[in-house]
Amino acid sequence: MHILDVQAEDIVEKFSDCQEDALLFLWGHAFELDYDETRWSRVEKLFARIAQIENAVCLPCGEVYRRYHARTTGSQTDG
After folding, report:
1. Does residue 43 have a pLDDT over 80?
2. φ/ψ (deg, to 5) at 2
3. Of 50, 62, 60, which Cα lies nearest the Cα of 18?
4. Residue 35 in this model has a pLDDT that exceeds 70
5. pLDDT of 55-70, one tens digit each?
6. DSSP string across 27-65
């Protein structure tokens, strides 16, 4: 989900309520936040809400891939 998606707050709440393993993939570019001060505050609120989710883990893309690969194949990868 893009960090400025109009449904972002609703999607984060659904993620928060999920009782099984789930992946919430956020993406965006810092320069997109420079266009309007309200964008910064929206993203800050979104990140603050995500930080409150118990058991949520923030990972870079490479680590998401490594964990997914290990889980689906039963093997580890170095790259």
Report:
1. yes
2. -75, 145
3. 50
4. yes
5. 899 999 999 999 889 9
6. B--GGGGGG-HHHHHHHHHHHHHHHTSTT-----HHHHH
* Residue closest to 33 by CA, chosen among 13, 22, 47, 20: 47
The reported pLDDT for the residue numbered 79 is: 54
Measuring CA to CA, which residue among 32, 31, 13, 30 is closest to residue 22? 13
Length of the chain in terms of residues written: 79
DSSP tag of 20:
S
By C-alpha distance, which of 77, 57, 58 is closest to 67?
77
The CA-atom distances, in angstroms, between 24 and each of 1, 14, 39, 60 are 8, 10, 20, 12
Q: Which of 8, 15, 25, 5 is nearest to 68 (CA)?
A: 25
Q: Calculate mean pLDDT across residues 14-30.
A: 92
Task: Give the SS3 label for residue 2.
Answer: strand
